[in-house]
């Protein structure tokens, strides 16, 4: 099923007799496997409004990300949160869509400074599990009119409603960027270094440690500004640094963003969110290849098939998600971090209201 | 403004409820005396007042939990209150409600610089949070004009913004985790010190929920390293429209200042008299601030001044010293207070797409003539968050009603222009009955379903946010 309008989508959901598998571009197949009729959003496509002077863009959920990125690039603007493209990591084909990105709350390295997808998302339209068309938020940058269902929809993986349209605030693309690259550091050294860098006033907006242990720090801005901050940062941190200028810097961060280090390699991939100072211990317990982003706050881990990394990590002040795993593993292990009972009850309560028949990606989030 | 009639059942058991509360709260944490309760009869929307049944001022999460459990068992509505600075009537009590104030929850729980967060009890004021970390080179970014007085609890309830949120975002973008007490007294932890809470974004949901979903007693807030320096530039123009066009051009040009503030003539005068900030004599004034090192500031201000020159400014002046910058901001942040000294006013908060600024400003000045009431404008122009102040005389019969009617028309204009009713002050009671302008019944129903999940009996701040007729069945249940 591939509705071309919000009304068609609403009719399909109303008429559904069983589970629906909600699918954008099919490039982020995460979560407990769902069996049901495929509901694709690809025909709900197109940019409905783009106002560069107001730094806002509104696009239908099925719009390919490539189309959005091309439109933004032509005006020298971008989505602030640097959404990751998961195709290489997941080994999947297809076109990532706006709706899929929002449903996954997909955010990249710049999240550490510019916020997550949910922070730039300013409005949504969606069809809930009863087929009702609902809007929330709008197209302005500040909006506290009523409850913020916009944030609730971000990262809800199509389990509370099928997104039909999303509005974002944008940022201008800075004139220049540069990356400082260290030699190999232990996880503890790397986190200390990244925390120090993120605590300077030089607006470091990428802080990652590659699988090879090298720490990368990114600065963006006007050309003179980048040169000044790069030098000031090196002075503040001391040590030897390799400097990557704009184009090579961009390539480096695309790799971090998309976790290309783990693309095409055997094994399961976990994504762990913790406070940075906990990360070295997490890495030590994981005993597997890792990439650290967000100053250590995000750990990508490559484990052998079926390995229940979460249970090996023990008590976790944060959360671990099995991003890439075989269907069998995703069916047997909780993909998302199990929640404390009162939180799970709230989540269940919301699901029961927004999807009373339990037909939208049922069970995907556990 | 209509408020629901007090529930006679609740009114009749006041004595019993107070006895039960006295058993679980220390004497300084419970106010029953009428004269002392008076202090809680309104917030900063002073046109509306009502004496609550009692005022509870718990000092621990446990006390909050115990107190809510009693109110839940007895079916007594609870109206949460931060510092009472809401301009939307968010903390206005009803006669049958108990005010739950967080003023005695003021401790710093933890400061963590390597992970860049601070955990505080939510009665702490916004400015005190920054005060706690600024000697070490950090700050808490959201900076509502009331930051000297307003509490973090209220900031979270209203998702407060401020002048600098163009760059740093509003409360929801800087909130990492909370301890929240549900209406039935149970305590939940949402998020933590890590980025992006697990599961559904409940943190995003409770931020801006106007105290209707739970009572946040502790919050983990993101802190940021202070910029090396900051410098504002004053730009005077001979019309509001031209200033509005200049804002749009600055944003389009790819420079992103930390703040772009707008004031029109009546506001400029009042603020100048109040703060002696050295504002120029002109029709419209922009305060544009950029951050960084001296050289970075020069580079950015150079670009901004170039853009401004295309709009023939009558004045273009950079701040020459730290002291001058402070005065410039003091003037801006005193705007509401300064206007209040010369007039009664109603402050609106509608937000519009930045590109519509010139049109909306022109329409407001036309409507001002139609309604026969003056309007002063002071607002966050960079993100389109308007603050028209409608001036009226509270002692003149009919003036308040005329002012409210005018206000409603301005907010409808904002929605028509693609904007919303409120950008940072919240709905409260003030914009409650206009929610139908922005949202269809199904949109409101979806939001009310959320409250059904968190507060099934609709006891937390029940008469706010949703039009009374729309929420009537739920409140009566």
Explain what the structure shows.
The complex is a heterodimer of chains A (366) and B (477). Chain A has a five-stranded antiparallel beta sheet with strand order 3-4-8-6-7, sandwiched between helices. A four-stranded antiparallel beta sheet of chain A has the order 11-12-10-13. With 366 residues, chain A is α+β, with helices and mostly antiparallel strands. Chain A starts with 5 loop residues before the first helix and ends in a 12-residue tail after the last helix. The mean pLDDT of chain A is 96. By secondary structure, chain B is of the alpha+beta class. Helix content of chain B is 37%, strand content 18%. Chain B contains 18 helices and 18 strands. A seven-stranded antiparallel beta sheet of chain B has the order 15-12-14-13-17-18-16, sandwiched between helices. A five-stranded antiparallel beta sheet of chain B has the order 5-6-10-8-9. In chain B, a hairpin with a 7-residue loop joins β17 and β18. Chain B is globular and about 70 Å long. The interface between A and B is large, with 83 and 94 residues.
How would the blueprint of this fold be written?
The complex is a heterodimer of chains A (about 375) and B (about 475).
Chain A: H1 6-15, E1 20-23, E2 37-40, E3 47-51, E4 56-60, H2 65-74, E5 77-78, H3 87-90, H4 98-103, H5 111-114, H6 117-120, E6 121-128, E7 133-137, H7 149-153, E8 161-169, E9 171-172, E10 176-184, H8 187-198, E11 206-209, E12 214-221, H9 223-237, E13 242-244, H10 246-258, E14 268-274, H11 279-286, E15 290-293, E16 298-303, H12 309-313, E17 318-324, H13 327-332, H14 341-354
Parallel strand pairs in A: 1-2
Antiparallel strand pairs in A: 3-4, 4-8, 5-9, 6-7, 6-8, 10-12, 10-13, 11-12, 14-16, 14-17, 15-16
Chain B: H1 8-12, H2 14-24, E1 30-31, H3 34-37, E2 54-56, H4 61-74, E3 78-81, E4 98-101, E5 108-112, E6 117-121, H5 126-133, E7 138-139, H6 152-158, H7 165-168, E8 175-181, E9 187-191, H8 202-206, E10 215-222, E11 224-225, E12 230-237, H9 240-252, E13 259-264, H10 265-275, E14 284-291, H11 294-309, E15 315-318, H12 322-333, H13 335-342, E16 344-347, H14 357-371, E17 375-380, E18 388-392, H15 399-416, H16 435-438, H17 441-454, H18 468-476
Parallel strand pairs in B: 2-4, 3-4
Antiparallel strand pairs in B: 1-2, 5-6, 6-10, 7-11, 8-9, 8-10, 12-14, 12-15, 13-14, 13-17, 16-18, 17-18
Helix pairs in contact in B: 2-4, 9-14, 10-12, 10-13, 14-15
């Amino acid at each position: 099923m591939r509705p071309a309008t919000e009304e068609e989508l609403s009719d399909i959901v109303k008429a559904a007799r069983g589970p629906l598998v909600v699918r954008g571009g099919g490039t982020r197949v995460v979560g407990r496997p769902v069996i049901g009729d495929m509901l694709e959003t690809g025909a709900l496509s197109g940019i409905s409004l783009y106002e560069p002077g107001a730094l806002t863009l509104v696009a239908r959920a099925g719009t390919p990300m490539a189309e959005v990125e091309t439109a933004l690039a032509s005006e020298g603007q971008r989505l602030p949160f640097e959404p990751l493209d998961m195709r290489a990591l997941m080994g999947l084909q297809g076109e990532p869509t706006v709706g899929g990105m929002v449903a996954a709350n997909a955010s990249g390295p710049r999240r550490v400074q510019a916020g997550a997808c949910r922070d730039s998302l300013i409005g949504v339209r969606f069809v809930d599990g009863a087929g009702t068309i609902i809007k929330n938020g709008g197209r302005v940058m500040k909006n506290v009119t009523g409850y913020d269902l916009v944030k609730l929809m971000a990262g809800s993986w199509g389990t509370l409603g099928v997104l039909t349209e999303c509005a974002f605030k944008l940022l201008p693309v800075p004139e220049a960027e540069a990356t400082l690259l260290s030699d190999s550091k232990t996880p503890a050294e790397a986190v200390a270094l990244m925390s120090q860098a993120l605590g300077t006033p030089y607006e470091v907006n990428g802080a990652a440690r590659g699988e090879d242990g090298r720490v990368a720090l990114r600065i963006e801005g006007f050309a003179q500004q980048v040169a000044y901050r790069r030098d000031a940062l090196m002075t503040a941190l001391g040590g030897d640094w390799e400097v990557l200028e704009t184009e090579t810097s961009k390539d480096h961060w695309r790799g971090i963003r998309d976790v290309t280090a783990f693309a095409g390699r055997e094994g399961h991939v976990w994504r762990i969110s913790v406070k940075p100072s906990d990360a070295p211990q997490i890495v030590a317990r994981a005993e597997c290849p890792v990439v650290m982003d967000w100053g250590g706050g995000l750990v990508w881990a490559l484990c052998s098939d079926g390995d229940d990394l979460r249970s090996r990590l023990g008590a976790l002040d944060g959360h671990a998600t099995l991003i890439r795993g075989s269907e069998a593993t995703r069916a047997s292990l909780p993909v998302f971090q199990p929640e404390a009972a009162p939180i799970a009850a709230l989540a269940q309560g919301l699901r029961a209201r927004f999807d009373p028949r339990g037909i939208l990606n049922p069970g995907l989030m556990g | 403004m209509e408020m629901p009639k007090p529930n006679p059942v609740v009114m009749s058991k006041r004595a019993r409820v107070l006895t039960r509360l006295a058993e679980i709260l220390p004497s300084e944490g419970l106010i029953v005396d009428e004269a002392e309760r008076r202090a809680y009869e309104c917030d900063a929307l002073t046109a509306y007042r009502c004496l609550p049944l009692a005022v509870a001022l718990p000092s621990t999460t446990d006390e909050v939990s115990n107190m809510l459990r009693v109110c839940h068992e007895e079916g007594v509505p609870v109206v949460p209150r931060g510092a009472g600075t809401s301009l939307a009537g968010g903390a206005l009590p009803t006669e049958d409600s108990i005010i739950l104030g967080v003023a005695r929850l003021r401790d710093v729980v933890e400061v963590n610089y390597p992970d860049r967060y601070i955990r505080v009890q939510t009665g702490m004021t916004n400015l005190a949070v920054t005060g706690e970390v600024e000697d070490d080179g950090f700050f808490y970014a959201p900076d509502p004009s009331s930051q000297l007085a307003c509490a973090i609890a209220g900031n979270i309830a209203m998702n407060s913004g401020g002048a600098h949120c163009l760059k740093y975002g509003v409360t929801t973008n800087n909130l990492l985790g909370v301890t929240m007490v549900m209406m039935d007294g149970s305590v939940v932890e949402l998020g933590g010190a890590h980025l992006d809470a697990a599961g559904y974004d409940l943190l995003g949901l409770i931020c801006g929920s106007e105290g209707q979903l739970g009572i946040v007693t502790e919050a983990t807030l993101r802190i940021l390293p202070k910029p090396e320096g900051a410098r504002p530039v004053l730009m005077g123009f001979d019309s509001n429209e031209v200033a509005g066009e200049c804002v749009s051009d600055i944003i389009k040009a790819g420079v992103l200042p930390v703040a772009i503030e707008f004031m029109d003539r009546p506001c400029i005068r009042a603020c100048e008299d109040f703060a002696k900030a050295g504002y120029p004599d002109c029709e419209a004034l922009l305060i544009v601030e950029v951050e960084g090192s001296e050289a970075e500031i020069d580079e950015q201000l150079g670009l901004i001044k170039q853009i401004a020159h295309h709009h023939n400014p009558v004045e273009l002046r950079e701040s020459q010293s730290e002291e001058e910058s402070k005065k410039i901001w003091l003037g801006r942040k005193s705007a509401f207070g300064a206007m209040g000294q010369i007039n009664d006013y109603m402050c609106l908060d509608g937000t519009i797409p930045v590109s519509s600024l010139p049109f909306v400003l022109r329409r407001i000045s036309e409507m001002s003539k139609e309604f026969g009431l003056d309007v002063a404008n002071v607002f966050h122009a960079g993100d389109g968050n308007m603050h028209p102040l409608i001036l009226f005389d509270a002692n003149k019969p009919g003036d308040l009603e005329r002012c409210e009617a005018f206000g409603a028309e301005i907010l409808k204009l904002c929605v028509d222009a693609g904007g919303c009713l409120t950008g940072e002050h919240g709905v409260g009671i003030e914009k409650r009955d206009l929610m139908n302008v922005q949202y269809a019944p199904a949109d409101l129903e979806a939001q009310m379903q959320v409250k059904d999940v968190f507060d099934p009996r609709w006891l937390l701040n029940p008469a706010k946010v949703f039009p009374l007729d729309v929420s009537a069945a739920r409140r009566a249940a």
